[in-house]
Amino acid sequence: MPSINGTTTVHGNTKVLDYATALEALKGYSSRDGLGIEDLIDTKKQGGLTYNDFLILPGYIGFPASAVVLDSPITKRITLKTPFVSSPMDTVTEHEMAIHMALQGGVGVIHHNCSPEAQADMVRKVKRYENGFINDPVVISKQTTVGEAKALKEKWGFGGFPVTESGKLGSKLLGIVTNRDLQFEDDISQPVDKVMVTDLVTAQLGVTLPEANKILAKSRKGKLPIVDKDFNLVSMISRSDLTKNLDFPLASKLPDSKQLICAAAIGTRPEDKIRLKGLVDAGLDIVVLDSSQGNSMFQIDMIKWVKKEFPGLDVIGGNVVTREQAASLIAAGVDGLRIGMGSGSACITQEVMAVGRPQAAAVYSVSAFAAKFGVPCIADGGVQNVGHIVKGLALGASTVMMGGLLAGTTESPGTSFVSREGKLVKAYRGMGSIDAMQDKKAGAGGKDSQASNAGTARYFSEGDSVLVAQGVSGAVAHRGSITKFVPYLAAGLKHSMQDCGMKSLTGLHEAAANGILRFEIRTASAQLEGGVNMESYEKKLYA
Which helix (H) or strand (E) segment is 318 a member of? Predict the structure, then answer.
């Protein structure tokens, strides 16, 4: 090729290779560009790294972002379509958050800074939100008043109650009371048999779920009761569940019942065993043992007890940040691990206690060890954006737990308010904050509320005369609804993986393990360079 303007010398090299041999020339290098994961997280050379201290190098894009698969296990037996978990904090996850996280393909862990009855009630609301066959419907009798039926609708968040002779399942079906039957009834003292629908479409016991769904679709009714040969009610299905299947195809559900997967946290005190029994009766699928330092005799004993008493219940242990901590809990029988100590946005454990570990180093060390035993890991803490999510997953975590990132959403507990700066915010606090540890909801306001508090239990402070804070209270920006924010996180994660050249989280983990996925350390100047460098700007995350 003739020279047009100057010479073709590059880097002082006058001998230019044939461009067609560029890929072949890569074989002349002893290793791929960048660092392998072991060199990156070599604490003897690099020190303890956080998510901001490194980047993932790009790979080859040979597929659209929509082709990326985000399926990933949260326990040995349960896999999610989206690797997102909401934290068991009292300003993050109650039943509304748990429902909407499950609908988006993740899972919400209901906090335990409340009475056992209140927590079990939240689990029931999650489990009743979506069903295949509803084998334990709310049934009423013909003597039930309109007012009582309205109260049930308010309690459970849905209407459409079957009416039987005895008011119980297994009794003769008389009719159904729907929302429309109750909506404009002013006489709340009259019995429901005066307003109920008796023109029923039913299916016989033994019908399959697809067959029942077809009957329901053709009937244009809201509910389809399933009856035996004597017209006794045995179960039912709901039209709203058909709609939810269409609207939320990624929803985390059990294969048989089609109910949403629900997780909840407990402590490791003796009374938590009683709490757990109530949660299991309510339909709990996953229990998270909530402790800032999981490698304790209390948690090990609790793991063994739970696995013996409830073998069908999956147990997630933690928190841990070292292989040694993880080994104790794996040996006790956990189905999953939660990684992180002091890295949360509202946590000051590392500052106050001088104990913990930078999150990137912790996630890699624990997840690499746990993988030998088939135990999935949750990266818990330090997640402030989509980039942190993909980094946690690239380091070996199967899922990512978020607290502060989700606390500002509509579905988190509490109400929004306008800050002094005129911004719309929501209250958020760490479970180690004084506010959380002095909350009396768990003890129902009694004198022993500190002993029953989830915050004091998590930080082993139940009997302390002086509470030492390991968290703070504050507020976070309002982020809108989970129904938009979680899809934004998932879309961002897919595009990030596309940039890395990875089509699945399984492939991401394999590429990191065999050295295909490469990384680079970021200096302080590099972090500044990678940020916004403008006089003024507006930062919109999604539209």
Answer: strand 314-320
DSSP for 357-396 reads --HHHHHHHHHHHHHTTT--EEEES---SHHHHHHHHHTT
Angle at alpha carbon of residue 247, lines to 244 and 248, rounded to 5°: 80
Beta bridge partners of 265: 288
CB 176 within 8 A of CB 160: yes
CA angle 501, 504, 506 (to 5 degrees): 115
- Look at the pTM and tell me if it is higher than 0.70: yes
* Whether residue 347 lies in the annotated active site: yes
Q: List 172's β-bridge partners, or say none.
A: 232
Residues 6+ apart with CB under 8 A from 344: 87, 380, 381, 382, 403, 404, 430, 471
Q: Could you say which of 347, 377, 429, 500 is catalytic?
A: 347
Calpha distance 405→379 (Å, rounded)? 14
How far, in whole angstroms, is CA 224 from its chain's centroid? 32
d(C-alpha 59, C-alpha 390), whole Å: 14
- Based on DSSP, count helices (H) and strands (E) in the chain, helices before strands: 22, 21
Query: How many residues comprise the chain?
Result: 543
For the chain of 543 residues, list the mean pLDDT of each consecutive stretch of 10: 64 80 91 93 91 94 96 96 94 94 96 93 90 80 86 79 87 85 79 83 85 83 86 85 82 86 95 96 96 93 97 95 96 96 75 82 96 96 93 97 91 83 79 65 53 56 55 76 94 96 96 95 87 74 70
Which residue among the candidates 275, 458, 479, 518 is catalytic per the annotation? 458
Phi, psi (degrees; rounded to nearest 5) at 120: -65, -35
- For 52, 523, 527, 528, 539, the CA distances from 533, given in Å and listed in that order, are 17, 17, 11, 8, 12
Nearest-CA neighbor of 173 among 185, 189, 161, 183?
161
Direct distance between the N- and C-terminal alpha carbons of the chain, in angstroms, rounded to an integer: 48
Closest CA to 51 of 512, 369, 522, 502: 522
Give how far the C-alpha of residue 217 lies from the chain's centroid of Cα atoms, to the nearest Å: 32
Write the DSSP assignment of 253-274 as a string of letters.
B-TTT-PBP-EEEE-SSTHHHH
Residue 114 among the catalytic residues: no
Contacts of 412 (CB under 8 A, 6+ apart): 91, 92, 93, 94, 96, 97, 406, 426
> CA torsion 308→309→313→319, rounded to 10°?
-70
On whether the CB atoms of residues 522 and 52 are closer than 8 A, the answer is: yes
